[in-house]
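To the team - uridine-5'-diphosphate-glucuronic acid complex, inputs and output below.
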Amino acid sequence: MTIPYPTKQTATAFSEVSPPSGASRPRLSFLGTGYLGATYAICFAELGYEVLGFDVDEAKIAKLAGGQVPFHEPGLDELLRANLGAGRLRFTTSYQEVAEFADVHFICVGTPQRGDGMGADLTYVETSVTNLARHLTRRALIVGKSTVPVGTAEWVEQLVAKHTDPELAIEVAWSPEFLQEGFAVEDVLRPNRIVVGVKTDWANGMLYAAHKGVFDLAATEDREVPLVVTDFATAELVKVAANAFLATKISFINAMAEVCEVAGGDVTQLAKAIGYDPRIGNRFLQAGVGFGGGCLPKDIRAFQARAQELGAGEALRFLHEVDLVNLRRRGRVMQLAAELLGRRAGPAGPDLSGTRIAVLGAAFKPNSDDVRDSPSLAIAATLAKAGADVRVYDPQGMENARAAQPGLTYAATMTEAVTDAELVCVLTEWAEFRNADPQAMGDLVAQRLVIDGRNCLDASLWARAGWQYRGMGRPHPEA
Ligand code: UGA
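Output:
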């Protein structure tokens, strides 16, 4: 089935779909106000929509309603306060209020890895859809945005059919999102594509009306936002395929780093050289301690689990290797730490007792306070387990890090973390670390040993300042 999505020429015909609430443009709700839902709610209010954000977490909703974003995302606080002030944005913990208010309901709840395997846990999707459906009293469109195993949209459609009056003709659509933490506002307001999985012209028209603000903004800036209109299964797969590709790209360059380490090559030069080929491209070729976060690691595992269920497990077997390469990079830091500190590794790994190590970085990437599956924090914990006295510092991720790894010691500043350290490990490439002065830091530490887990420091500058520098997949620089 092909449903022609409105182009600039045909947009008027589609925008004539009237929102069931009687409002001139659809009213939007976003269920789940984590990184995804809160960012979307705030940005769509900024685009001029009337928006209601929902979460079961009362503390989170109180914070948002009070003008405070519960996580660190550049630019989002200002937009939240502006749109609360303008009266376009509200927050609630009531399903009934959501059902009464909106025409288009976006499901943005988390789909974490299951405790008992690699698959995705769909409990929050089920709860939010069921509770919303039970409260609906007029026609509406429910749009899945959460990252889910292929087949979930059909299942959501069945859930909706079970819990709503058929006369209401509630419909379901799927529209995956591609925002990156740290760039989330820009990614939502100016997406590089919009993908929608729809079954009917009505759903298509409502989704268009719900995204018209994005297309209008693009038009005023003389940009186009490419659209892919497709079926449910493809829309669901696009998301996991994109994340699987990105994870593969990172593990590819990290595998090259492993080879460079034994062959004496420099992976940063190698990445630059292959990246000049436009078929390869130079982005996401940064070798280091590997990928983490709430998305790539769990998504590649859930994708494999689902493919296995569907009988296509072999097709994604390489993703297992992608995962293994990624996790091996964490071990490489342990190996380098033992080497630099002159500790021999025993059968249980190196004994680092009596050493003092500064770990700079806890967030899974810079400009974020997210520590979910963070390589930096995992390495800090392993160093501590090996007996080292570890001091962790991160510009934004301290609170989350403390909650995730309460057993570690945290320093209030970079200076405090490195003072008297025998080894400094830079594991998240925050600007504060990249721009640190190796001379000044050299005066604080007990010995000038540094592991650059993100290849983000100027190796020769640090070597000239008397540091023994170790990067990932790079030869040691001459002092
Ligand atoms: C990722 C995708 O990039 C988004 O498109 C997607 O929408 C999102 O997941 C999601 O599924 O919600 P995000 O988790 O914010 O976004 O983080 P990325 O920027 O992709 O970085 C992931 C990890 O890879 C980080 O730990 C980062 O340090 C690491 N990375 C990234 C590298 O090690 N090397 C690189 O070259 C790039």
